[in-house]
Structures are given as structure tokens and as C-alpha cells.
Task: structure prediction
Amino acid sequence: MAPKKANREGIILDALQHRIDHPELSVRKIARHFSLSNTTLQNRMQHMTTPASKAHEQQQLLSKVEECIIIDWIIDCDDRGIPLRRRHVLDMVYQLQKGRGKLSEIGKHWVDRFISRHAEIQLKVGKTLDKQRSLATDPEIFKEHLNRYYNMRCKYHIKPENSWNTDEKGFAMGLGGGGTILCRTGRKNPRIMQDGKRSWVTVVEAISGNGKSIPPLIIHASSAHLMGHHSNINYEKDTDAYFTHSKAGYTTTAITLDWLVKIFEPKTRPESGIKEHRMLVLDGHSSHVNNIEFIECCIKMNIHLICLPAHTTHVLQPLDIGIFSPMGNSYQKELEDFLRDHRPNWAMHKGDFYPMYHKARAKAMSERNILSA
Result:
């Protein structure tokens, strides 16, 4: 049986090497030993033909250099805990083609053929962790993450002030929580007053290894951002917070990219400029790991991403552990005081959220709490 195409080039190379090692053997005998045509081996020895990979190089979608770029990118993302899917590789191919100004159609099996050509990478079925967080607290998972973190810091000489962690916290704007209260003896079902407004607000925060923070991004649930909601603060001069909106009040890929470029990068830029390396530890939210533009921008700005293992943020996420819990408690107290002062008929507005959050944040986002986290 004739050798398969995938192995044929390797067999020819083995035959050529065998000829070099054993010059006393005839070409015909070597060709017969490797199940090759005598003419094929003679032509290759006389350089009359070229390997199939080189002969069709002009017809290939990417150059050898471009393929090496993609391989390095796949391996780098895997090392950072951000494994890629097929669609991410196709996005990268499209970006490379777009950069040269020439777009070619990508076949549906191109990624599989690409992987088969490169032994450094392979497809594997990703194992999903149990949703119960207690089952994810495996010491081996923690060890792997911490080794990745310290190796990255050592490799790029990242200082504590350039090591950052980001996370987001959601608030149902007018909802507080329960707690111990004083009331009349014999009172049944005592209640704590709250506005009941369930409009969602997401806050994006970032802290560093030397106890610093940058201004938060406040994301309101609305179809438009109205500065009138915040008329009690001069935001043209006040840089304590940035504001945006989305339909549901959650982060999106576009908002995440804007946050990186317009807030995080300039606010954390080292004095020596973007050539000094920074690290950003984040969770596996789709707006991060599935956001190719976000990852590319980080690479260009020497910001190295480290992704936390799934279902471990309650143990490994510094903001989740040391900041958001006291911040939530402080916000609840501010909300109760606000409603007590404005009862009985006041309805909360979007502009009421930030002044209360600002006070709660000042108590929770201290250097001591950040370093402790």
C-alpha cells in the first residue's frame, strides 16, 4: 500500500538520510526498502522536485512566519489559563489577513489541518469543574495558578505596583439586606425599610499589589447615559469615577475594551511608559477570555493576563475576598441612612447611587484592606 500523503514527506526525508549514512547502497535498493519510486528518490536527490509543503507554499492561507505567530499566541494563552477555541484562531487568521489587505476564504476544516501540521499544539476536550465551589478547592489547582502567577512575575520582572487584579460587583440599586434592629417588645415580623428599586448597577474595580486602586467604572442599566442623573457632582473635574451604560447593566465586550484602553492603561501606566511590564489578574468572564481585541490590546501594551481557575474566585480573587464584602456592608448602611432621611415618599434615581457608593468605597477601599486582600 502506498504511504499516506501526511507521512510521505517524512519517508522521503528518511530515505535521503539513509542514502547519506550508507553511500555504498544503490538508490534503487534504498527506494525499494522505503517503498518509494526509484524515480522519485532520484529526482529529489538531484533537486529536480521540491517537498509538497514548499511547492504549495504560495497557495497556503498564511506564511510560515504568520503560522509561527499563531502557534506562539495559542501556547501563550494556554500558559495564562486562557485556552482558545477554534473560532478564536479563525479570528486571528482574519486579523492577519486584514493586516496585509488581502482576504481569502477560510475553509471549514482549515483549523484542523493547521493543528495537524504543528506537533506543538493539540485539541483536547476541556474538563468542566463541578459548579459546587467546594469541589473546586483542590490544592493542585491553587498550586498551578500560583506557580503560573509567580513565574510570570519573575519572567517579566513585574513589580508589586504593576501587578493588578480586577473584578466587578453588582448592586440592585435600592435593595439592602436584613440585620439586627431594635423594636417594641412583642413586635411581629419587624421590617427594615428599603426603596425596592431593582435597577441593576455593575461596578468595575481594580487594585494593585502595593495597595493602590484606580477610579471605578459604574455601569447603569439604561439605553442612554444621562448626565442629568448625576447633576450633584461635577464630573468634568471629578475623576473619582467613570460612567457608562448597557441595556441590562452588565459588562459587555465593548465596555471591557473601553475600560482597558481609556481607564486601566492610562491610570496604571508606569512612569517609564508602557515598555515596563504589567500583570492583570482576572476571572474567566466571557468579556475577557472571548474578547480577542481585549487580548491583543494587552499584548501591545505589555499587559500580561492571568486568568483565575473556574469556581475559585471565593478563595483566589483578592477583590472578592477582602474588598467587596465590607464594601457591600457599607453600602447597605448608607442606603438605610439615605432612605431614613428621605422617607416616606422619595423614589431613588440613578444619580442617588454613586454618592452612597462613593462613601462606602472610601471605607472599604483602604490601603490596609487592599494589602490584606
User: Anything to note?
Assistant: Residues 60-117 form one domain. The longest strand covers residues 163-172. DSSP finds 15 helices and six strands in the chain.
